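Would you kindly consider the sequence and fold I have copied below?
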Amino acid sequence: MRMIQLAAVMSLLLPAAALAAGKPMAGSEYLATAKVTLEQARATALKAHPGQIVDQELEKEKGGTGLRYSFDVKSKGVTYEVGVDAMTGKVLENAKEGAHPD
């Protein structure tokens, strides 16, 4: 049973690790709390704004349920921030990254 749980956790962390060159995803300590998986949130973000995810994190932030995945999606040379509620899967933000990104 523990091996199955470990495999499930690793499947969540591997995409993040690839993005962060071996570092765990920022906010990975909240993964067990989220009802929406990282893979589901990534799919939602790319549906909302097609492109390539270049950064991702899970953070506590105002709006929605207070726990959100935040993705930087690069499309045609422009970076967009797409926020997905980690409890409902609803897109909370889909906007061009400002001059001072988070």
The first helix runs from residue 2 to 19.
